[in-house]
Amino acid sequence: MNGCPMDSRSALKNQREGWWCVNGHRKWTFCLMELSLPLSHCGWNSVMEALGQGVPILGWPVAAEQFCNAKLLEEEVGVCVEVARGRSVVGHEDLAAKIELVMNGTDKGIEMATKACQVKEMIKNAMKGEDGFKGSSVKAMGKFLNAASLQRMQKLKNIQSNLCSNQE
């Protein structure tokens, strides 16, 4: 076994987008369909993977900022239902009820799915620029490099000007 689930290997053979596997010491599989699950610890990468695909979240924060993320996603954004917090034990009835709420066409579930799709579009649009895909981080880096370049050019002009005035 090379560390890839059987369906991942067949997907690689069929060259489906979003799949890759690594052979060797790191046995890991990447697939947006596998990572974009509704059950999440609400770490920011997991949140972005789910919402980037328009998937509402069943939150089970465990540590650090995950609690704040879950609260924000539930109360402010409306794309999350918290299942539990930390190491709590959840009865199967409670878990089943929350899964039903999100996944089986309830009014709240439909509302969450709609909002998750809206957030998906927001994420997608945040990566676009006027001339194609160019996110805000890339734009900010470009502005920084332009400013640094202009500042350097100004320093060179000042040095050149000083050298010329000293020769006169």
TrEMBL record:
It comes from the Eukaryota. The keyword tRNA processing does not apply. SUPFAM superfamilies: UDP-Glycosyltransferase/glycogen phosphorylase (SSF53756). One of its GO terms (molecular function) is UDP-glucosyltransferase activity. Pfam families: UDPGT. Belongs to the UDP-glycosyltransferase family. PANTHER family: GLYCOSYLTRANSFERASE, OS04G0273600 PROTEIN. This is Uncharacterized protein.
